[in-house]
């Protein structure tokens, strides 16, 4: 059982030390898989305690729990020293283990969790010695390029900028840097901006939420774009199901980790020990996404046909205001949210037309004269129309409408006069 007894959360450092003396702290290793190479990219070292009865306990609660406020200053300092002692013991044993194991890929990385608070303590001490992790790696003869410093997610009272000298030292030594658990207790966006990590680890909670929530899907999509623009790799951790795996792959995972592939183990598993074969996963994922894309293409074509057959007419009475009429409104009443016309610079010329039915449409003049050139979909249609002058309909990326809070796709088409007609379609019309 890997869950630490909650009653220990109020223990003093001496009580913890007494407990640790009756067993052994050891590292467990969970493989991290490379999507592009179909292989093991590395292993995350996780703290475990093997008690005298042979039961294994996770040390996560010990490291991440707050030190009880009831303790005196000296007791709190003793507690911090104990945490550092146990943490260093795990890191040292993990480095020794991987450096001596011959059965794994000699380039496989070792992910070592380090607290930002421990990093700050090292910098404050103004020690002339190398950081502990750099020392043990040098002593082991291990290539520093195989080490990934993983900054754990925890409340950190200091300024992240203060850690840059140490992070830069790790990078100059050849280490990679990862930001842990994006999306859990804090956003960690400040750490990404300040430290420019090589790897961003995305928390399991975001993946699970994305299965049912469009909001979280948009967040994951944004994270994938952020990682791409910064030159960072995304590592999705905590994957337990095929659905979570597909979500991770959909949003740009380069590396994967979780019980779906392998549980943490005292031994360093090689790729042959995994029951999942990546070539099969890739084929299944591609077929799954291909089905979705082909279904969407079919839906888009059906909608474009309805738009063409609906008999949309844009009329001008000689003034700047224009109107829209429909000959076959029934073709659009179940999918179109609203329609309107702008000029080429984005200023709205027509009213908004909504609530389309065979009996007519609602007309709202209050939007005439507004300018939409600042909206991403307007610039997107401008680019597409300038690139392709065929007069076809162009669809935007899905987005949430500010006023209705509906998820929409905007279709646009350049008119002969140079104006543009926009048709907002409810996203439920698509898969």
From TrEMBL:
InterPro entries: Cyclic-di-GMP_PDE-like, EAL_dom, EAL_sf, Sensor-like_sf, YkuI_C
One Gene Ontology molecular-function label: cyclic-guanylate-specific phosphodiesterase activity
EAL domain span: 9-278
SUPFAM superfamilies the UniProt entry points to: EAL domain-like (SSF141868), Sensory domain-like (SSF103190)
Gene3D superfamilies on file: EAL domain, PAS domain
Official protein name in the record: EAL domain-containing protein
């Amino acid at each position: 059982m890997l869950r630490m007894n909650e009653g220990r959360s109020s223990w003093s450092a001496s009580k913890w030390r007494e407990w640790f003396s009756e067993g052994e702290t050891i590292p467990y290793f969970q493989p991290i898989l490379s999507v592009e190479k179909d292989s093991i990219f590395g292993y995350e070292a996780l703290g475990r305690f093997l008690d005298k009865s042979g039961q294994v306990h996770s040390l996560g609660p010990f490291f991440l729990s707050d030190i009880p406020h009831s303790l005196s200053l000296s007791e709190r300092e003793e507690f911090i020293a104990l945490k550092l002692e146990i943490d260093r013991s795990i890191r040292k044993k993990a480095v020794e283990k991987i450096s001596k194991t011959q059965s794994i890929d000699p380039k496989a990385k070792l992910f070592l969790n380090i607290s930002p608070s421990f990093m700050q303590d090292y910098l404050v001490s103004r020690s002339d010695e190398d950081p502990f992790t750099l020392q043990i790696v040098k002593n082991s003869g291990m290539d520093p390029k195989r080490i990934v410093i993983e900054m754990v997610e925890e409340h950190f009272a200091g300024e992240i900028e203060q850690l840059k000298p140490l992070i830069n030292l790790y990078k100059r030594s050849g280490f990679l840097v990862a930001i842990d658990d994006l999306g859990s207790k804090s956003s960690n966006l400040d750490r990404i901006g300040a430290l420019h990590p090589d790897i961003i680890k995305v928390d399991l909670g975001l993946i699970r939420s994305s299965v049912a929530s469009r909001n979280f899907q948009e967040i994951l999509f944004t994270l994938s774009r952020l990682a791409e623009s910064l030159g960072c790799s995304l590592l999705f951790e905590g994957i337990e199901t095929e659905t979570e795996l597909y979500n991770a792959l959909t949003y740009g995972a380069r590396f994967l980790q979780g019980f779906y592939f392998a549980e943490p183990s005292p031994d360093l598993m090689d790729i042959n020990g995994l029951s999942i074969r990546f070539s099969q996963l890739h084929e299944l994922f591609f077929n799954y996404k291909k089905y979705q894309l082909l279904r969407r293409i079919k839906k888009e074509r059906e909608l474009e046909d309805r738009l063409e057959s609906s008999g949309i007419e844009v009329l001008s009475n000689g003034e700047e205001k224009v109107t829209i009429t429909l000959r076959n409104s029934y073709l659009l009443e179940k999918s179109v949210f609203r329609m309107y016309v702008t000029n080429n610079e984005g200023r709205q010329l027509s009213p908004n037309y909504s609530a389309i039915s065979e009996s007519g449409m609602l007309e709202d003049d209050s939007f005439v004269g507004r300018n939409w050139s600042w909206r991403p979909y307007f610039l997107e249609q401008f680019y597409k129309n300038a690139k392709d002058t065929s007069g076809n309909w162009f669809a935007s990326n899905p987005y949430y409408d500010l006023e209705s809070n509906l998820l929409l796709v905007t279709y646009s088409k350049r008119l002969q006069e140079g104006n543009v007609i926009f048709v907002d379609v409810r996203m439920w019309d698509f898969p």
